[in-house]
Amino acid sequence: MKRREVFISCILLVGLMLSGCASAPTAAPVAPAATTAPSAAPTAAPTPVATIPTDKLSQKGHLLICSDLPYPPQEFFDENGNPVGMDVDLGKEIGARLGLKVEFVNSVFDTIIAAVTSGKCDILISAMNITADRNKQISFIPYFEAGQSFVALKGNPENINVPLDLCGKSAAAESGTTEVDYLEGTGDYKGIGLTQQCTKAGKKPINVVITQKDSDAFQQLQAGKVAIYSTDSPVAAYYLLQHGDQFQTVGQVLEPIKEGIGVSCGVADCSAAPLSDVGKAIETALNSMMADGTYNKILAQWNLSNGAVKP
């Protein structure tokens, strides 16, 4: 969702995150995700590895984390309405290592950066891919890497096999995501998106159905209102694992890119700014998790080990 992407010339196989073709990037494929919440994340040692000045937090003693739910398997609600997922486990562990009580704030992805910069949240952890436009607004601490998939109804009734097969058809994606940017030719893809490729080839543009939540985009496909639903590879795998008799991945593999924990930097352009006190503490906590193996354990619990990054 939430990523910057480049098409790679090989076809997705049903249920796979990324292909193994020679032109694919070096990052390993992201495995299908768990369908239920695994055991709780490991508990950090009682002594904080870093501290955040009280005046830098929205609430004393708390770490407020903005996240766009549902977006399984990285963040979604369990049957009791509690946030679960890989991002949730990582966020809780980061908070524990900073001696803070973690609270998740369900946010709309299109305004989640503004929520952080305005102080509604201290940080965001929401499968957000690091792009140049976003990095001007907030600082990023890389923590994961994912590709992107197109999901269609089983049997691929619209026969989507290459990008231009979407010309003149409908595609659903969540507002504020790089899926929308790529389809429409906005953001980092201004003027070079798939719609522009269609018109340049003398074909009809794509009808992009933009929804407020990723789950709404998925429902557009479920209802047969669009040809494809565009989302990140772990999310596509999650839905295929649950509903493999109804859906399949189609089209072409998109290059994986890093996702980041977002932190306000306090200046007009964060791309050249050093990490804030909050950012430095978050980075220290994450690095300590990577060093002692906790980070890898959390990813493994959600079958997302192949998206791991190094400090």
* Ends distance: 23 Å
CATH domain class of the largest domain: Alpha Beta
Overall outline? globular
Unreliable runs: 3-33
User: What portion of residues belong to β-strands?
Assistant: 15-25%
The radius of gyration over CA amounts to: 19 Å
Number of strands: 11
- Could you report the average pLDDT, rounded to the nearest whole number? 87
Number of domains: 2
Alpha plus pi helix count? 9
Q: How would you name the CATH homologous superfamily of the largest domain? A: Periplasmic binding protein-like II
Largest pleated sheet: 9 strands, mixed
Percent helix among the residues? 25-40%
Query: What is the CATH architecture descriptor of the largest domain?
Result: 3-Layer(aba) Sandwich
CATH topology category name of the largest domain? D-Maltodextrin-Binding Protein, domain 2
Order of helices and strands: EEEEHEHEHEEHHEHEHEHH
Could you say which structural class the secondary elements and strand pairing correspond to?
A: alpha/beta
Reconstruct the topology from this structure.
Elements: E1 7-11, E2 62-67, E3 76-77, E4 83-84, H1 86-97, E5 101-106, H2 112-117, E6 123-124, H3 132-137, E7 139-153, E8 170-174, H4 178-184, H5 194-200, E9 207-211, H6 214-222, E10 228-232, H7 233-243, E11 247-263, H8 277-292, H9 294-301
Parallel strand pairs: 2-5, 2-6, 8-9, 8-10
Antiparallel strand pairs: 1-11, 3-4, 6-11, 7-10, 7-11
Helix pairs in contact: 1-8
